[in-house]
Amino acid sequence: MRHLNELDERIVHVLAEDARRSYAEIGAEVGLSAPAVKRRVDRLRAEGAITGFTVRVDPAALGWETEGYIEMYCRSKTSPRDIHRALSRYPEVASASTVTGDADAIVQVFASDMRHFERVLERIAGEPFVERTKSVLVLSPLLRRYSAGPPA
Question: I need a labelling partner for 88 at 20 to 30 A (CA). Which of 42, 54, 80, 128 fits?
């Protein structure tokens, strides 16, 4: 996949902020006509630079106001695909990434309360490939720029 040029990046950033904006609104912001924006978005989708459109839900709207991070330490030969497959079954998992350092992965979890977080932690720790976990709870989020994944 090729890297995005500056104009495509600007379009993607506008879409990442609000994918419901019209092509005319996006065009007004980036200096293109609505049809030109649509052509670029269609091309970006065809090339795989834009993989889809989704809804971002505030976890608090689900009653999930407790946030924490779980470091996962896995048995050797555990693949990222195995970790992904297991964690995708947990609706409480907002994001998960393999990381450098001692841990194999870090997992962001939202839960309704401490007990709910503890149950999720216990279930993740019970996965057959997990040797141990270490967790921290968020007291106050200080800065959030992107809801999930890297910036577009």
Answer: 42
